[in-house]
């Protein structure tokens, strides 16, 4: 028997609240470390993926008899590279711009998936998708280039917004590679394990190359790293995957758009960080555009997994 609508709504709400904490824990970890830096951002991104890949490793030894192509494994590895770039850029963005702007820009990947899919696979978007892209780009410009109210709080908003946008682009390539890998009959469990492990291996040496390491931080920092792996990664993504058995991918994609709202509200409560007016108005316009794009392009029969959401 399917669960009640109330139970599904509750699980989705838990999922949104869980993924909304990712930006908060990253900011708390940065404060515990005495300030963010590129080396520290790469440490957070690498630690998160290392823990996630360790947890998922048993999936690799299940269904070892499944038949797939070498192309599927190459696509999963390519997805892992894109995922590493996604976490590296988005995590770094939170050291330079507001939580509201960063989380709003990084969830725009449905737009870029539509455009990349058109360019790469010849999948021409519908008119509603084009309208959504126009609205979202208008809102995104307002978020990225609008005046900020607290320049002292955000060291370099333009850089941070650019990094968040780069994170959205990388997430789009990650999702598209994942889609093609699944079309090659690679199971979701093995695909995610290979992609996460590749991302972890790519990120592993980067803290050292930027002047950092894994052993110089306080216990509080490592505690926040564990929380990042547990709450947004495990609870948040698991909630969405559970709900997808009962609701369409379109509904889940729309629900995920509440993440910037949840992150912004938590930012106000915990850090007293009031988003700039440009981020609020631009984020609203951008969200309407993303909703239009999702409704216009999402195939309800398309499978959805951890590959469709990354924060």
TrEMBL record:
It holds the Pfam family EamA. InterPro entries: EamA_dom, EmrE-like. Belongs to the EamA transporter family. The chain crosses the membrane at residues 38-61, 73-93, 99-121, 128-146, 158-176, 188-209, 221-244, 251-271, 277-295. Keywords: Membrane, Transmembrane, Transmembrane helix. One of its GO terms (cellular component) is membrane. Residues 8-143, 159-291 form the EamA domain. It comes from Pannus brasiliensis CCIBt3594. This is DMT family transporter.
């Amino acid at each position: 028997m399917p669960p009640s609508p109330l139970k599904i709504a509750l699980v989705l709400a838990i999922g949104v609240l869980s993924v909304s904490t990712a930006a908060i824990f990253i900011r708390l970890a940065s404060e515990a470390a005495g300030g963010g830096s590129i080396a520290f951002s790469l440490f957070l991104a690498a630690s998160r993926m290392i823990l996630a890949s360790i947890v998922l490793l048993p999936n690799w030894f299940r269904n070892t008899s499944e038949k797939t192509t070498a192309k599927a494994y190459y696509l999963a590895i390519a997805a892992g590279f894109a995922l590493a770039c996604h976490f590296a850029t988005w995590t770094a963005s939170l050291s330079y711009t507001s939580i509201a702007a960063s989380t709003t820009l990084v969830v725009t990947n449905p737009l870029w998936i539509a455009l990349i899919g058109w360019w790469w696979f010849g999948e021409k978007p519908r008119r509603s998708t084009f309208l959504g892209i126009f609205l979202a780009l208008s809102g995104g410009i307002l978020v990225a280039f609008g005046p900020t109210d607290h320049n002292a709080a955000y060291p370099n908003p333009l850089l941070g917004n650019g990094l968040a946008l780069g994170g959205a682009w990388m997430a789009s390539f990650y999702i598209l590679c994942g889609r093609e890998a699944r079309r090659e009959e690679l199971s979701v469990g093995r695909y995610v394990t290979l992609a996460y492990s590749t991302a972890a291996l790519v990120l592993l040496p980067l803290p050292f190359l930027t002047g950092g390491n894994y052993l110089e931080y306080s216990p509080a920092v490592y505690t926040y790293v564990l929380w990042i792996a547990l709450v947004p990664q495990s609870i948040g993504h698991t909630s969405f995957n559970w709900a997808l058995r009962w609701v369409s991918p379109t509904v889940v994609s729309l629900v995920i758009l509440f993440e910037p709202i949840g992150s912004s509200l938590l930012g106000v409560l915990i850090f007293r960080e009031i988003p700039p007016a440009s981020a609020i108005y631009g984020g609203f316009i951008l969200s309407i555009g993303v909703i239009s794009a999702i409704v216009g392009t999402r195939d309800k029969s398309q499978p959805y997994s951890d590959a469709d959401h990354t924060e």
